[in-house]
Amino acid sequence: MRIELRELRAYPGRPVLTEAREMFDDLMWCDEPLTLVEAVQVKASAFYDEGRLFVTLRVSGKAVRPCSRCLVKAEEAFEREELEEIPLEDPKAPYLELRPWIAAGVRLAVDPRPLCRPDCRGLCADCGADLNMEDHREGCTASVTTPDPRLEKLKDLL
Known about the structure:
The structure is a single chain. By secondary structure, this protein is mainly beta. The protein folds into two domains: about 110 residues, no CATH class; about 35 residues, no CATH class. The protein contains three helices and nine strands, in the order βαββββββββαα. Strands 2, 5, 6, 7 and 8 form a five-stranded antiparallel sheet that branches. A hairpin with a 6-residue loop joins strand 7 and strand 8.
């Protein structure tokens, strides 16, 4: 997605609106590939004022990521809007490519700890059972609770 800078420079302060869909095949998030279900919907509003370029970007879409508790693939909707002041490296450039800012907006929009569902119980750290599908496996010590020895004196008081 590009913004034509000639038009912005010709009319300082006047916003230029544009919409597009951008597809990313190689988007990474925390060293893992971020798989998009569809192209990212992008709405941009830009204006030029006193040698500075201001862009409001709104990104929305859907991504498939592993649940942070049970590792099942889950679809996640995301949306983010932010105002950026973008430095112009070449003041005479005919256009500005927004793809890097769109990719950053997608990375900031996705949940840092995605869940397959709000009540996901996750994987047992001891036996590895998916607690959404089954109970703890036989011999698992994670389900055995031992009282805190520091609280033993409270029994004498009761």
